[in-house]
Amino acid sequence: MKMTSVDRTLLLLTGILAAYQVAVGINGLGEVPIIAYTIGFGILLVAGLLLIILGFDVLDSPIVVIVSTIIPLTISLGLVWEHLASLRTSYLVFAIAGFLAVLATRAIPIKNKLPTLVIAIVHGISGMTIFLLPSILAADGSMRPAFALVGLGGAMIGLAGLLLSFLKAGKPIVPRETILKILPALFLLMSVCFVAGFKFG
Predict the structure, then answer these.
(1) In this structure, which long-range contacts are made by residues 2-10, counting pairs with CB atoms below 8 Å and at least 24 apart in sequence?
(2) Distance set, CA 4 to CA 57, 156, 175 (Å)
(3) Domain definitions of the chain by residue range
């Protein structure tokens, strides 16, 4: 499917928002959250630029599954490190182990359902963390209501990650054309929610 000028515009706006978040939106945080958010939003920026330059064909690269895993893992790690001090170490272990498990099941040819199961578990936990944690913190008054937008962004990034992962695994949840049609807009909406949530929450 050919990328349209509208798609490229949406992806460019996504890249600008991701760059803003790396440069400005994470100032004043601790060392680990800054590193985690920089990696997550930095990869989102690079992914958007690669899509603009190379088109949707870049999604056929084997690296897509890995990249689509790093973004939610690092952003969820930053959130846990900031707001759930008692779970910092255990979530860091999960993030590293989850990434290595995805890497291993993609590097080694495995014909059973294990790679798909690993992807579903890692994306499920990291995506739900990004969705639920900000929503709960906004609801109980620990953070301002706008912080719930980070959770909404988390829901979108979880959806985008799963769509891309299953597409790459050859088991798309919805047709490829549908995924490619909604992906640029989904990336932009996700970035808007993250930037607004972190800034105003």
Answers:
(1) 2/55, 2/56, 3/51, 3/52, 3/55, 3/56, 6/184, 7/184, 8/52, 8/184, 10/184, 10/185, 10/187, 10/188
(2) 13, 22, 18
(3) 5-200
Q: What is the pLDDT of residues 165-194, one digit of tens each?
A: 677 666 677 788 888 888 899 999 999 999
**pTM check: above 0.70:** yes
Determine the Cα–Cα distance for residues 77 and 96; give it in Å rounded to an integer. Answer: 10
pLDDT tens across 41-97, in order? 999 999 888 889 988 888 777 777 788 789 899 999 999 999 999 999 999 999 999
Tell me which long-range contacts 113-117 makes (C-beta under 8 A, separation of at least 24): 115/169, 116/166, 116/169, 116/171
